[in-house]
């Protein structure tokens, strides 16, 4: 049992050092690529899905964090891996996010970022991955990142 658990953790946490090339459309039709990411701006990139229980659990906390820190030095990119757009459209209508929601229904970016489970978050700046985590996250962890990497309002 422990071996299986350790193996699962190893599969989930394949660290990457640089942001891979990607091209995704957001829900408003804008195409996002690595070139779209502004120099010296920190991005919290989260791979998630509407069906993901942990994603749903942490979403209100992540939303509060994003609202508190979003500005010229920080942006949040939510990358939806939903294959079926119907639940995502309902979620968008209900939540009306102020941040970009990118679409990855074919898991192309997910594979390039080596994501094996949801939610997975990356903190990136100037094409460099500063931090990454798979699974549940606490607000204190995000606040520590804001302090350590000096972003936010």
Give an account of the 3D structure.
By secondary structure, the protein is of the alpha/beta class. It has one domain (19-149): Glutaredoxin. It has five helices and seven strands. It has a five-stranded mixed β-sheet with strand order 5-4-3-6-7, covered by helices on one side. A two-stranded antiparallel sheet has the order 1-2. A hairpin with a 5-residue loop joins strand 1 and strand 2. The termini are far apart. Residues 1-12 have low confidence and may be disordered.
Question: Any chance you could write out the topology, listing elements then pairs?
Answer:
Elements: H1 2-12, E1 23-25, E2 31-33, E3 42-48, H2 53-69, E4 74-80, H3 85-95, E5 101-103, H4 108-112, E6 120-125, E7 128-134, H5 139-149
Parallel strand pairs: 3-4, 4-5
Antiparallel strand pairs: 1-2, 3-6, 6-7
Helix pairs in contact: 2-5
């Amino acid at each position: 049992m422990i071996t299986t658990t350790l193996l699962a953790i190893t599969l989930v946490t394949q660290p990457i050092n640089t942001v891979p090339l990607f091209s995704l459309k957001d829900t408003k039709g804008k195409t996002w690529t690595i070139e779209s990411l502004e120099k010296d701006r920190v991005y919290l990139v989260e791979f998630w899905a509407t069906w993901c229980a942990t994603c749903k659990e942490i979403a209100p906390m992540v939303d509060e964090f994003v609202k508190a820190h979003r500005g010229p030095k920080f942006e949040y990119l939510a990358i939806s891996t939903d294959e079926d757009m119907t639940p995502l459209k309902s979620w968008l209508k209900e939540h009306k996010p102020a941040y970009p929601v990118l679409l990855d229904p074919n898991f192309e970016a997910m594979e390039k970022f080596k994501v094996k489970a949801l939610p997975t978050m990356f903190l990136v700046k100037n094409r460099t991955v500063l931090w990454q985590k798979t699974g549940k996250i606490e607000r204190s962890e995000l606040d520590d990142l804001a302090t350590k990497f000096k972003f936010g309002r």
